[in-house]
Specification:
This protein is of the alpha+beta class. It is globular. The chain is built from six helices and five strands; from the N terminus they run βααβββαβααα. The N terminus and C terminus are likely disordered. The strands form two sheets. A three-stranded mixed β-sheet has the order 1-2-5. The chain has a two-stranded antiparallel sheet with strand order 3-4. 42% of the residues lie in helices and 11% in strands. The chain has one domain. A hairpin with a 2-residue loop joins strand 3 and strand 4.
Amino acid sequence: MEEKKKASGMTPSPSYEIRAHHGMCLAFFQGKGYSDTFSKHMGEVKQLLDTNPLIRITGEADAICSVCPNNQEGVCTSSETVVEYDRQVLLRCGLSGGDVMPFREFEKKVYDSILIPGKREEICGDCGWNALCYFENEKKGKQR
């Protein structure tokens, strides 16, 4: 994994930690969520990530989870489920927990390895937000 390095040879600190499966969630975020507070926060995080900061891929609570009602003292109440989502994203994108990269690089891996080939439902088709997570051409196919 190629990381951006400072002139000193040191890897810069990532600005955000992002759960691997959130790479899929962010692709389909429409301003809806568990609560108004959560939706507003996720929108703000998405705006910040759109500036392409350096991120660290994690399998633990991240910048998005901080206001999620399922976050109980840093642990997701759906832990077994989301850990498997994370594992699948890491596996399919050829990543490991702790990898550091610009957000756009991570986003591209998620699109190229999961979203464009239509593999998302294999990973998280049982998610409560599944109905929101389709590209426009997929939505038309689901309505037939």
